[in-house]
């Protein structure tokens, strides 16, 4: 999982988390309602603190060097020459409206190059500081690993600007030679795509300006015994990744669910997801209708609802239809191994975003990072413009951490809400949706107003107004969610449900006391399961006694 930008080795050493747990969805120009390009990201890790990081633009003297630390461990990897000027970044986006996200798929263990200097996380942030466009980013990234070696395992990257979106997949050479093998494909206009911890590029055209690849991507696979067919039949995913149950059911299934929400006919790929049979799921599909920012936000909140993998439909959901399963991912009963479904929305997310990238607006608003912390299902997505240089206090580094609670920190406030809902999901989620939708509707309306207003302002004023706008909504939504958490605690304490005269106003007796609450109990399915399991012991019987 990507960590925040590391200012020092000491800070870097604290940034440790799980890498094999991210999702990125893509909508190209022509597939979106406003003709923007969008990519998403869920940074999922059990130890990642959700915050927003930034680096200012900077000029560097000739001969300056940049220290590189591995993102997942903070380990010092080496130094590379700095460039004369680096661009400002905010989160996974830079001042030019370039955004990059990732998901790790590991691949063949023997291809990890422990002699490389640049790992996948450093590759993203170094590139954001050096490239203006998606195509420039691909060149910067591939040049970096060619010149300095690639330290990480298999990785998929979403790389996008206001004109186009690409998927690039990369894996090292195990120290057998410097660099990495890779393939990058441009997502055609009008299509949606995605990746989720499994390599998604299978066969690809060898002569196509919209497909780029390392010169040795096929020959290296042959030399290692991963492939022995004709060049045109080369399958990157099957050669370099491991296609097993986890890769399909735990990874490709997430992308399938996104496709299924927006395009008919996706059932034909269920044999691939379930058993690795039939035609592999395509890299992209055409949606039945265009998607907007809100569609992409809700895609990040997916739990396989209304699909064969719906997490609320089996006994594991409990009496409150909880669409979450605690880790580990698999478990055994009588020596038979079973899996927990792995949905896009998950409890251990540190932060997530929808990057909205536009080519027909002023520079200050070319990129909008709709940013949220903790579980995407219960977060509030706030627009952070690419011109923002000051991180809102609620997202700022040093405002709490994974072991230090802060009621000013959006991460802790959203956990306060989400972790209450995990216990009584079906009862609490309507209240959460009421506040969440209210805030996001208000934000969406306010965005239209502020963007129309700043269009007429000078560049400096545009940046000031948009920065203040992002700051206000980030801190305001955090305060409102703290109120929501308090409300949930009061309303649902001790298994009861307080009565209300209207949402947020609790009912009292004429004497001013708390009105008798509702007893929410459990679902019918749960009661039936209890009766089946312990019915004889719990059955109410007619006892004859004195009357």
Stated plainly, the CATH topology of the domain at 24-339 is called Penicillin V Acylase, Chain A
Q: Largest beta sheet, briefly?
A: 7 strands, antiparallel
- How much is the radius of gyration in Å? 25 Å
Tell me the number of strands: 25
Broad CATH class of the domain at 24-339: Alpha Beta
Q: What would you say the CATH architecture of the domain at 24-339 is?
A: 4-Layer Sandwich
- Count every helix, treating DSSP H or I runs of 4 or more residues as helices: 12
Question: Beta-strand level of the residues, as a percent range?
Answer: 15-25%
The geometry reads as: globular
Q: Which structural class fits the helix and strand makeup?
A: alpha+beta
Order of strands across the biggest sheet? 16-14-1-2-19-20-21
Approximate helicity band: 25-40%
Uncertain ranges? 1-19
- State the distance separating the first and last CA atoms: 69 Å
Average pLDDT level: 94
EC number: 3.4.-.-
GO molecular function: cysteine-type exopeptidase activity; dipeptidase activity
Keywords: Dipeptidase, Hydrolase, Protease, Signal
Signal peptide: 1-21
List the helices and strands and how they pair.
Blueprint: H1 9-13, E1 22-27, E2 37-44, E3 54-55, E4 58-59, E5 65-69, E6 76-81, E7 85-86, E8 89-90, E9 93-94, E10 99-106, H2 120-128, H3 134-148, E11 154-160, E12 165-172, E13 180-186, E14 192-195, E15 211-213, H4 217-223, H5 236-240, H6 245-262, H7 270-275, E16 284-285, H8 293-299, E17 330-333, E18 336-339, E19 349-357, E20 367-373, E21 382-385, H9 410-421, H10 425-454, H11 459-492, E22 496-497, E23 500-502, E24 505-506, E25 518-519, H12 524-538
Antiparallel strand pairs: 1-2, 1-14, 2-19, 3-8, 4-7, 5-6, 8-9, 10-11, 11-12, 12-13, 13-15, 14-16, 17-18, 19-20, 20-21, 22-25, 23-24
Helix pairs in contact: 2-3, 9-11, 10-11
């Amino acid at each position: 999982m990507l960590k925040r930008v590391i200012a020092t080795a000491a800070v870097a050493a604290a940034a440790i988390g799980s890498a094999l747990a991210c999702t990125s969805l893509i909508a190209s120009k022509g597939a979106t309602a406003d003709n923007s390009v969008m990519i998403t990201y869920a940074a999922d890790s059990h130890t990642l603190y959700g915050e927003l990081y930034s680096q200012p633009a900077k000029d560097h003297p000739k001969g300056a060097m940049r220290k590189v630390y591995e993102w997942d461990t903070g380990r010092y990897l080496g130094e590379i020459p700095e460039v004369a000027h680096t661009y400002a970044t905010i989160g996974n986006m830079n001042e030019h409206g370039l955004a990059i996200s990732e998901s790790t798929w590991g691949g063949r263990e023997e291809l990890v190059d422990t002699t490389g200097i640049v790992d996948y996380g450093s590759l993203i942030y170094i590139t954001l500081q050096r490239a203006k466009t998606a195509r420039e980013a691909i060149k910067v990234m591939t040049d970096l690993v060619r010149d300095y070696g690639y330290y990480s395992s298999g990785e998929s990257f979403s790389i996008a600007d206001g004109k186009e979106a690409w998927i690039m997949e990369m894996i090292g050479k195990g120290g057998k030679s410097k660099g990495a093998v890779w393939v990058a494909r441009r997502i055609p206009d009008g299509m949606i795509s995605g990746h989720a911890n499994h390599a998604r590029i299978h066969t690809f055209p060898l002569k196509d300006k919209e497909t780029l690849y390392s010169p040795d991507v096929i020959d290296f696979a042959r030399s290692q015994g991963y492939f022995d067919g004709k060049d045109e039949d080369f399958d990157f995913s099957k050669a370099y990744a491991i296609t097993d149950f986890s890769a399909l059911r735990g990874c490709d299934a997430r992308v399938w669910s996104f496709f299924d929400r927006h395009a008919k006919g996706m059932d034909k790929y269920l044999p691939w997801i379930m058993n690795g049979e039939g035609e592999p799921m395509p890299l992209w599909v055409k949606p039945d209708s265009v998607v907007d920012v809100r569609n992409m936000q809700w895609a990040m909140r997916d739990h396989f609802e209304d699909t064969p993998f719906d997490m609320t439909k089996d006994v594991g959901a409990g009496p409150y239809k909880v669409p979450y399963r605690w880790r580990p991912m698999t478990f055994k009963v009588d020596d038979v191994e079973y899996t927990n479904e792995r949905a896009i929305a998950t409890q251990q997310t540190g932060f997530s975003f929808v990057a909205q990238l536009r080519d027909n607006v002023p520079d200050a608003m070319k990129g909008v990072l709709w940013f949220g912390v903790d579980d995407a299902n219960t977060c509030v997505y706030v627009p952070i413009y690419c011109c923002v240089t000051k991180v809102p206090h609620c997202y700022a580094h040093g405002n709490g951490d994974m072991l230090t609670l802060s009621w000013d920190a959006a991460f802790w406030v959203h956990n306060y809400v989400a972790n209450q809902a995990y216990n009584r999901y079906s009862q609490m989620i309507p209240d959460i949706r009421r506040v969440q939708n209210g805030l996001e509707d208000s934000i969406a309306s306010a965005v239209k107003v502020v963007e129309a207003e700043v269009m007429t302002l000078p560049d400096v004023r545009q940046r000031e107004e948009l920065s203040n706008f992002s700051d206000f909504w980030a801190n305001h939504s955090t305060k409102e969610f703290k109120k929501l958490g308090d409300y949930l605690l009061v309303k649902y304490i001790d298994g009861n449900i307080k009565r209300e005269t209207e949402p947020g106003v609790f009912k009292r007796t004429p004497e001013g006391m708390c009105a008798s609450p509702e007893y929410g109990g459990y679902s019918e399915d749960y009661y039936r399961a209890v009766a089946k399991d312990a019915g004889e012991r719990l059955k109410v019987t007619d006892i004859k006694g004195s009357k």
